[in-house]
Amino acid sequence: MGWDGDEHEEDDEEEDEEDDEDGDEEEDEDEDEDEDEEEPDSAHKAGQRPETPQADQNPPEPLSSQNSHAPPSLLSTSSSVSSLSSSTLSGSLMSLYSEGELGRVAVRGCVQFSLRYQPAEKELQVHVLRCRELAEAKKQRSDPYVKTYLLPDKSNRSKRKTAVRKRSLDPVFNETLKYKLEKRDLQGRTLNLSVWHHDSLGRNLFLGEVEVALGTWDWANTRPEWFSLQPRMPIPSDGLASRGRLNLALKFIPAGSEGGGMPPTG
Question: Where are the annotated segments for Disordered (predicted)?
C-alpha cells in the first residue's frame, strides 16, 4: 500500500508537470498569436504617411468690386485716387477747352506780349512780358503761367508754356515761346494765348485767353501790346486740325451685270 501511494504521488507530479508544460506552450502560442496580430498593425503604421492638417474649407472672402468689405481708410484712399485721376486727365484738348474738370473763375485782367517772325531762323517768336490784375484763383492770390497753341493744331506739338509765377496777380514772365515754320504757313493760323492758375494737384484754373489771327497780323509791328483777357471761347465746328486727305471714287453697277450687282473688290 505504501508503494501504491508513492506511485500515485509520482503520477500526480508527472501530470502536474505535463499540465505546466501544456500551459507554458499555450501561453507561448498566445504570445505568438498576439505578436502576429500586432505585426500587421505595426507595419501599417510604419507605412502610413503622417496626417496633414486639412486646408481651411472656408477661405476668406475676396474684396468685392464695390469695396463693400474694405476698411474706411482704404475706401477714402480709393476715392481720393479716383478723384485725382479724373482731375489729371488733361491732354491738349482738355486743357484748352474743358470746362468741368478744370474749374472756372471770373475772367479779368490783361496780358502784354509781342509777335515777331525771324526769316533767317524761319521762326515765329511770341515774347510774353507780363500780366496785370488777374483773377484770384485762391485767397487773394494766383500762381499763373501762360500757354500758347498755334491753331488749328491743338496737339502737344503745338503747345508752349512759360514758367509758373507764384503768388502774384501781376506776374512778370519776360519769356519767348518759339515755333519753327515757314512764313507762308502762318496764313490760316491763329495764335491762342491763355493764362492759367497752376494747382499742385493738377486742377489748373482758366484765367482768360486771347486769340490773334496771324494771317492779318502786321508783322512790321514788333512792339509789345496789351490785350484784354477774354472768357473761354466755344469749340469751333471747323476748328479741328487737318490730318490728311481721302479720295473717293463712286461707280454704279446695274443689277445682273458682271459680278452679280456687287462692286469689284481689290
Answer: 1-87
- The torsion angle over the Cα atoms of residues 59, 61, 63 and 65, rounded to 10 degrees, is 130
Question: What are the CA-CA distances from residue 90 to residues 95, 193, 240, 261 (Å)?
Answer: 5, 17, 18, 50
C-alpha distances in Å from residue 65, one per residue of 62, 78, 79, 197: 9, 12, 13, 36
pTM above 0.90, yes or no: no
167-210 pLDDT per residue, tens: 999 999 999 999 999 999 999 999 999 999 998 887 899 999 99
Distance CA 209, CA 128 (A): 13
Helix (H) or strand (E) holding 20: helix 2-47
Residue partners of 249: CB distance under 8 A and separation at least 6? none
Closest listed residue to residue 229, CA positions, set 148, 96, 104, 110 = 110
- What fold is seen in the domain 90-228? Immunoglobulin-like (2.60.40)
